Amino acid sequence: xxxxxxxxxxxxxxxxxxxxxxxxxxxxxxxxxxxxxxxxxxxxxxxxxxxxxxxxxxxxxxxxxxxxxxxxxxxxxxxxxxxxxxxxxxxxxxxxxxxxxxxxxxxxxxxxxxxxxxxxxxxxxxxxxxxxxxxxxxxxxxxxxxxxxxxxxxxxxxxxxxxxxxxxxxxxxxxxxxxxxxxxxxxxxxxxxxxxxxxxxxxxxxxxxxxxxxxxxxxxxxxxxxxxxxxxxxxxxxxxxxxxxxxxxxxxxxxxxxxxxxxxxxxxxxxxxxxxxxxxxxxxxxxxxxxxxxxxxxxxxxxxxxxxxxxxxxxxxxxxxxxxxxxxxx
Length: 330
Prior knowledge:
By secondary structure, the protein is mainly α. Helix content is 80%, strand content 0%. InterPro entries: UPF0324_pro.
C-alpha cells in the first residue's frame, strides 16, 4: 500500500511540475523525481513486485493509448517538401548517431535512442522504442535528459538563426517543427516568433511524431533479421513462428492498430483529449519508475559522451533542415 501511495504522489508531483514548467516537461520531472528518491531512505519502502508490474505494463499501455491520438490524415495538411525534410532528418540523425556512437564507444542502444529522440519527438519516441531495443533504465534516462538539454539550446539558437537567414513565418515554422525535439519546446520556439509560425510548427511536429510508426516497424524488422542470421549461423532450422512472435512485441501491434483506427475513424475531440491525458498518466508513472532504477554512479559512468553525441546529432539535424528549406523553398 505504501508503494501505491508514493507512486500516486510522485505521479501528481511530476504532472504538476511539468504543467507549471512546460519546457521542463513531465518526462524529465518524473525521471528526476525517481532518481532523487532512489538515493533516499524512502526507496527502501517500495515493493519490488509492484515496481516491476508498473515498469512492465504502464509504459506499454501509455504507448498504445498514444496511438489513438495519432492520425495519418494529418499528412494531408503538409506538402511533399515537408515530408522530404522530415524523412531526411530521420536518416541523417540515425546515421550520425550510429557512426558517432561507434567512434565514441557508446552503447548501440543508447546511441540509437539518441538518434531516434533527436529526429522524431524526443521523450515519446525514446519511450516507444526503448522496450523494443531492450534498453536499460539508465540509457532511457540519459537519452531523455540529453534531449531536454538540446531542446533548451534550440530555444536560444533558433530565433537568432531564423533572423540571420531571413526566414519567413512559414520557413521558421517548418524549421521549428522539424529541428526541435519535444513538443513543448517546439510550441515555445515557434509561437514566440509569430502565430503563423506556431501553427505551422505544430502541424509539422504532429506529422513528425507519426514517424514513430515506421520507426518501430523498422526496429522490429532489424531485430528479426538479426535473429535469423544468428539462427542460420548455428545451422538451426529457419526462424519459427514462435520466434517471430517473440521478436514482435504485442504492444507495438496494438500501437500500430490504434494509429490505423484513429486514421480511419474520426474520434471526438473530447475522447481524444481524455485518451491523451490517460496516456500521459501511464507514461509518467512508468518514467518515474525508470528514474528509480537510475543510480548516480551509472550517470557518472556514462560521462560526457552522450552529451557530445547529442550535440553533433542535433547539429546535423539542424543543418539538414536549414539546407533543405533553402533548396526546396527558395
